[in-house]
Amino acid sequence: MVRAIEWVDAGADSHIRLIDQTLLPASETFLEISSVEQLIEAIQSLAVRGAPALGAAGGYGVALALLEGARHEWTETELDTAIDAVALARPTAVNLAWGARRVAAVRAEGFDRVLAEAHAIATEDERANRELSRLGADWLLERVGHRPLRAVTHCNTGALATTAWGTAYGILHELHDRGMLELVYVDETRPLLQGTRLTSWELHHDGIPHLVEVDGAAASTILRGLVDFAVIGADRITADGDTANKVGSVALALACARRGIPFVVAAPYSTIDVATATGDLIEIEERGDHEVLNFGGLPVATPGVRAFNPAFDVTPHDLISAIVTERGVVEPAATEQPLFAPDVAVADH
After folding, report:
1. 164 CB-contact burial (10 Å; exposed 0-12 / middle 13-18 / buried 19+)
2. Which of 74, 167, 214, 347 has the greatest CB tally within 10 Å of its CB?
3. Environment class of residue 306 by beta-carbon count within 10 Å: exposed (0-12), middle (13-18) or buried (19+)?
């Protein structure tokens, strides 16, 4: 199984190793990250991405900051600034800041304790992913039917987006392992093609039958009855169950609602942000024009034209059939608000 992020233990030269996802599938290249600045660049360039993987990056980023601070004799203020810079490198995904804050909270206990806490995030994520995959597969088979199912998914939620196994992808993998997955339609996921480049790459390596489709075909694929359910991940889930995910996700939810089939969101419990009441309050990251106006390094628009490039959209909770975490399955459209109570979840954030 591919590891999107790992800690390389080499004494004073310890560092983070990332697979550079911007180069997949053409090249499987690893980045050796030894400074906070390099980590932030990797996060912002999407060399590492996906909410759970960013949670691990946040945690390991604190360990990296402590090592770099020791080399350069940073003051406590300088160390705080470096940790904050990691935590805030991308604004929409809650797991990045959560991972950094969780590990930073134990830094007074020393480097070994910090590294152990960062490792714990990675270990817990894989365990959570496997459990939510089991729960999600059970839920789908109970409601759709105990037969091989056809699915559509958006963006990438596999091992590349997590510390191992995957979230929404993990549910697909679980169904496949049970002999209950017939076919997956993979949205290309414009403008950076995470579906084409990453999800298809993982499905191919795992031997899971799939077809890549342009984003504009997804709603029609659903309405034509070609799939039995849609499953996506999430970068943030609010207290009422609204979810932020890669832009284009809400179109699948609308089509599923019209067709009357399940629209499922899968994410570790750490993705739930009980401090944000609704999706209207989520800050949506907007990225550069070049991602939309260029393709394969070549301009595809008239010179001087500008682009609107939100990285995420928000799916209202009443369009979501199920939110699956390692703690269980909730059905937002049929649940009284607030869906996630602060007194239950604050300790986990």
Report:
1. buried
2. 167
3. exposed
The H or E element spanning position 28 is: none
Which residues are the active-site residues? 235
Whole-Å CA distances, 200 to 107, 160, 306: 39, 12, 30
pTM of the model: 0.93
| Cα first-last separation, the chain | 28
3-state secondary structure of 17: strand
Domains and their CATH numbers in the chain: 5-124 (1.20.120.420), 131-348 (3.40.50.10470)
For residue 237, what are its two tokens? 């889930």
Please report, as a single letter, which amino acid is at residue 18: L
DSSP letters spanning 187-199: E--TTTTHIIIII
Nearest to 157 by CA among 166, 149, 148, 165: 166
Contact 82, 30 (CB under 8 A): no
State how far the Cα of 236 lies from the Cα of 267, in Å rounded to an integer.
9
Comparing CA positions, the residue from 7, 5, 157, 147 lying closest to residue 67 is 7
User: How far is Cα 274 from Cα 341, in angstroms, rounded to an integer?
Assistant: 7
The one-character DSSP state at 317 is G
Residues in CB range of 313: below 8 A, 6 or more apart: 244, 245, 246, 247, 248, 249, 250, 284
Which helix (H) or strand (E) segment holds residue 40: the answer is helix 36-44
CA 59 centroid distance within chain: 16
What are the average pLDDT values for consecutive 10-residue runs of the chain, which has 349 residues?
A: 91 94 95 98 97 97 97 96 97 94 97 98 96 98 97 98 96 98 98 98 97 98 98 96 98 98 97 95 97 94 97 97 97 80 45
Amino acid (one-letter) located at 126 = E
Token pair 């900051």 in the structure block, residue? 65
